[in-house]
Specification:
The structure holds two protein chains of two kinds. By secondary structure, chain A is α+β, with helices and mostly antiparallel strands. Chain A contains six helices and ten strands, in the order ααβββαββββαββααβ. In chain A, the strands form two sheets. Chain A has a seven-stranded mixed β-sheet. The radius of gyration of chain A is 23 Å and the shape is globular. Chain B is mostly beta strands. Chain B is built from six helices and 23 strands. A 15-stranded antiparallel β-sheet of chain B has the order 5-6-7-8-9-10-11-14-15-16-17-20-21-22-23. In chain B, strands 2-1-4-3 form a four-stranded mixed β-sheet. Chain B has a two-stranded antiparallel ribbon with strand order 12-13. In chain B, a hairpin with a 5-residue loop joins β3 and β4. The two termini of chain B are 37 Å apart. Classes of the chains: A alpha+beta, B mainly beta.
Chain lengths: 232, 485
């Protein structure tokens, strides 16, 4: 709807950045100071299609990058795979989300019927689908086709907005993570080192095995978009 | 002067713009993992068999016991228990990775669960002691554990520390050794048990002259002692993240105390010194009840969750002890994420000793002030006195009956998982107040109330690196505790 104008805005911003060597130097220093931490959290800019239907703003995009070879192979392991998608819209340059959408998609391979059974929980309700081939299952899991992301009434005309999305494959709950870390942590074992170990800020981690918060994570950010004012 | 200021403002501006451009995080109350783990779906299956591949010396029963399902169970293929199974096996700590899959069983609806294990070394370095001080030119020690003894799941560990001695009169080289045994999740239940045997041959320095912050070896004298301690106990997991423990301790102390320990003050007065120990042989027999609840998802570099620990230890003649005392200790910490990389934590901890406890059971200043070297396996290895940053009492005690600390810490995740062995690193800055009192606050003072208060400040800053063999900390306080001063 407004991609061209948004592109022009992006290019203008990029030109402005190029024109100032001091700003570039400062940006580099800022990146050195603060950027490292977010290097692996930095959302990837992905072109998404926005459109209106009824009272809703909808998007279409693809999430196939979430699956690598191993994750794809695991789809027929007989164990369930779950995708949790969190999407939210905020005005460009602001940190306050004006809408939030949560989507869960699950798939499990039925070893005896040799079909993939999918359960898709979306704003419109729950759908269960059975497909024969793994590629079909992958497509159903990773295609976002007309997903409602916000009521139009929440998105004012003309102002630029951005959609951000975090997609996780088999995320682990905070409670499970805490349990695993606890099981792995060392108790006092009845040892004598009472003081430091009691008041100290540290627990000695017995077997320091880090369980990732999800098998795979994709962080996406859309191009800026806006709603044009309706023609009179 | 203006140019640096302008550059700083520009940097801050860019940081602010960068923050603003970054889309805000989704609602914090939504835990995607909890969303993923809700509800069952998929076809009904019956577990016909469980096949374990690659477990090495680890007994198959040990792995089967850890699973949240068993042979013969009927459940749906999307049951959350099947997903949790992987973490249950990982949590044994014996494997680097666990892969699970299913294949068809002998009849329709039946499946065989296959567990593919990648073993890891189970000998772990728990602690490493080293440093130098005015009373011990060097000390060195190591604490190791074998978590999976002969594939049985029983953990065995132990540590040894040796500290040389210097010019403190009557001092000697010190050593300590400890052997520990632990049986986690006995028979797959919520019970676990632990025990330890510790032997110390120590030489405890006490001050005989000079001001309190003086660490000259000439102003100290030492007495020799031996301690032999046996501990044993059991823990019960009252909830997934909460544990109740009971423990018993029997300790023999053999101390060669001076006849009349005294200290000569700056003004020439001579006062008697309480060494909080009985001369010759004495016993400490005690029972401890403790509770621990820990909801921090990440223990090494926490950014959320909380931990509460409460402990009460009772020792008395009725138990056969030479000392009558009750030791109460508590600590609480809580973490709040501030951004994708930053978090702030609050820590509170304190204790009170009621009655006549042996000196080794009193609150030690090194327990509360991170800028001092803590005892190594119970041995006193440094005399460093706390810095008087707040200009409060200059003669703060090193051992006390009541004390505590409160601190705040800001951490900033510098990098995430950078390799299979390095999980992450965080910069941290912390500051807090600590206080330690020998007895009730004196009603008669020869100084103002502020300069009589036994409280002070501690600060720390550094880098923590989380690796697969443990957490390494490079910090100001850690350095201060390892060098003579």
């Amino acid at each position: 709807m407004s991609a061209d104008r948004a592109d022009r805005a992006d290019r203008a911003a990029a030109r402005r950045a190029r024109t100032s060597p001091l700003a570039a130097l400062a940006a580099l220093a800022a990146l050195c100071l603060a950027g490292d931490a977010r290097a692996d959290d930095e959302p990837e800019l992905v072109r998404m299609r926005f459109f209106e239907r009824g009272t809703q703003l909808l998007i279409s995009t693809s999430l196939t990058k979430l699956f690598d070879g191993a994750a794809y192979d695991r789809l027929d392991s007989g164990f369930a795979s779950t995708l949790v998608i969190r999407a939210w819209i905020s005005p460009s340059g602001s940190g306050d989300p004006i809408s939030f959408q949560l989507v869960r998609r699950r798939v499990v391979y039925n070893l005896w019927d040799e079909v993939y059974e999918l359960e898709l929980d979306e704003p419109s309700g729950r759908r269960t689908v059975k497909v024969k081939y793994k590629a079909e299952a992958l497509k159903l899991l990773t295609s976002i086709d007309g997903l409602p992301v916000a009521p139009l009434a929440k998105i004012p005309y003309v102002r630029h907005h951005v959609l951000a999305m975090i997609v996780e494959l088999n995320p682990v709950s905070q409670e499970t993570l805490a349990q695993v870390r606890r099981w792995l942590s060392e108790g006092t074992g009845g040892g004598l080192d009472r003081g430091g170990s009691f008041f100290g800020s540290f627990v000695s981690v017995f077997v320091n095995l880090r369980v990732p918060e999800a098998d795979r994570v994709l962080r996406l950010r859309s191009q800026p978009f806006y709603r044009p004012e309706p023609k009179r | 002067m203006r140019a640096p200021c302008a550059t700083m403002l520009l940097l801050l501006g860019i940081c602010a713009v960068a923050q603003a451009e970054e889309a805000a995080p989704p609602p914090a109350e939504i835990d995607p993992g909890a969303v993923a783990e809700q509800g069952e779906f998929g076809p009904a299956i019956m577990i016909e068999d469980i096949s374990v591949i690659g477990g090495g010396s680890t007994r198959r029963e040990l792995i089967l016991r850890a699973l949240p399902f068993a042979i013969g169970d009927v459940l749906s293929a999307g049951d959350p228990r099947l997903r949790r199974a992987r973490f249950k096996v990982l949590a044994l700590g014996f494997f680097r990775d666990v892969e699970m899959s299913m294949r068809r069983g002998s009849r329709r609806g039946r499946v065989i669960v296959e567990i593919l294990l990648e073993e890891r070394g189970t000998v772990v370095l728990n602690r490493f002691w080293f440093g130098s001080s005015t009373i011990a030119p060097w000390w060195f020690g190591v604490d190791l554990s074998e978590r999976n003894l002969l594939g049985s799941g029983i953990s065995v560990g132990g540590g040894v520390v040796y500290a040389s001695h210097d010019r403190v009169a009557n001092s000697d080289d010190q050593w300590a050794a400890e052997l520990r045994l632990g049986v986690p999740a006995i028979g797959g239940s919520r019970w676990s048990s632990f025990g330890s045997l510790t032997r110390l041959s120590g030489s405890e320095a006490y001050q005989v002259a000079g001001p309190s912050n003086d660490t000259s070896p000439e102003d100290y004298r030492a007495f020799r002692y031996d301690r032999t301690t046996a501990r044993g106990g059991a823990s019960y997991d009252v909830a997934a993240l909460a544990r109740l423990s009971v423990a018993a301790r029997a300790e023999l102390v053999d101390a060669e105390l001076p006849l009349t320990p005294t200290r000569t003050l700056d003004d020439g007065r001579v006062i008697s010194t309480d060494l909080h120990l009985k001369d010759g042989r004495s016993r400490v027999v005690s029972a401890t009840l403790s509770f621990d609840r820990d909801t921090r998802p990440d223990l090494a570099l926490p950014t959320s969750g909380s931990r509460l620990t409460l402990s009460a230890e009772l020792s008395g003649r009725a138990l056969g002890s030479s000392y009558d005392f009750v030791a109460l200790r508590a600590r609480y910490e809580r973490w709040w994420p501030l951004s994708s990389a930053g978090a702030i934590g609050l820590r509170l901890g304190g204790g009170a000793i009621l009655g006549r406890a042996p000196r080794f059971d009193l609150l030690d200043v090194t327990d509360l002030n991170r800028m001092l070297a803590p005892r190594a396996l119970g041995l006193l290895i440094s005399l460093s006195s706390p810095l008087n940053l707040l200009r409060t009492a200059s003669d703060k005690p090193t051992l006390g009956e009541a004390g505590g600390a409160a601190s705040a810490e800001y951490t900033y995740r510098l990098f995430g998982k950078s390799s299979r062995r390095i999980y992450g690193g965080a910069l941290f800055v912390s500051a807090g107040l600590w206080g330690l009192s020998e007895a009730a606050f004196p009603k008669i003072r020869d100084r103002g109330i502020w300069s009589s208060l036994p409280i002070d400040l501690f600060i720390d800053a550094g880098l923590r690196v989380d690796t697969d063999i443990g957490v390494f900390e490079f910090s100001l306080a850690n350095t201060l505790g390892r060098v003579p001063r």
